[in-house]
Amino acid sequence: MNETIDLMLSHSSVRRFTEEPIEAEHLEAIITAGRAASSWKNFQSYSIIVVQSEGKKQALYDLVPQPAILQAQAILLFVGDHNRASKAAQLHEKDFEAKGTENLLISSVDAALAGQNTLLAAESLGYGGVFIGMIRHKALAIAELFNLPDYTYPIFCIALGHPAEQNPVKPRLASKAIVFQEEYVEQGVEVIQAYDQVQTDYAGARQTETWSERMVTQFGQAEQPETKAVLEKNKLL
Ligand SMILES: Cc1cc2nc3c(=O)[nH]c(=O)nc-3n(C[C@H](O)[C@H](O)[C@H](O)COP(=O)(O)O)c2cc1C
């Protein structure tokens, strides 16, 4: 349809990278484009920590052993951030209370929009990348490793680099299963079965469990304790 939409439709996560570095001006352009995303009241309630040193990448990998972390030429850690808001309160000599669900949604949505813009910008320059949300399972150690102050929390990383492999585009749910006209239409199990089959056909021999089994695992277990723990520690819950 146009170049932008073609780029968006050709997205697939890249988890293996070559050793070729990311050009510094490309990385700057990628992050600047990421930060152009919309944000709640323009608060920009997130920070981005750029990790390129081998030492820090190794330390992160030791906590979250995903090969993409070691192979990436840059890891961008997106941090939900109301610390700057606390400084505004200080400036105006007002009380500051950041605790609460709405404030968490504000920072998480802002970070997600910037993150998606960032990955898309990287893809437009021929790089590949993947979001890494599993860092939240080690949120306390990550907060310490990156020196996160009060009113901040780790949300996800994006691992970026030159692709060493490219997976075919992963098919999404059928449009009628996820896009409704005028009102919500609750779906039955047949939608789940149909998409399980689509995913099984896509993954082939690589599949270890079906799409619905993965969801059952996710939603059948207790909440990851560290996500909440870091929010409590940094005065957001
Ligand atoms: C917030 C978020 C966290 C993710 N965390 C991980 C992760 O920890 N490890 C990983 O390999 N992929 C991770 N992914 C990538 C998803 O698995 C991937 O986007 C999804 O399977 C769709 O595949 P595609 O991006 O190739 O289209 C994450 C994606 C998002 C949006």
From TrEMBL:
It holds the Pfam family Nitroreductase. Signal peptide: none annotated. Keywords: Flavoprotein, FMN, NADP, Oxidoreductase. GO terms for molecular function: oxidoreductase activity. InterPro entries: Flavin_OxRdtase_Frp (IPR016446), Nitroreductase (IPR029479), Nitroreductase-like (IPR000415). Residues 11-162 form the Nitroreductase domain. It comes from the Bacteria. PANTHER family: OXYGEN-INSENSITIVE NADPH NITROREDUCTASE. Belongs to the flavin oxidoreductase frp family. This is NADPH-dependent oxidoreductase.
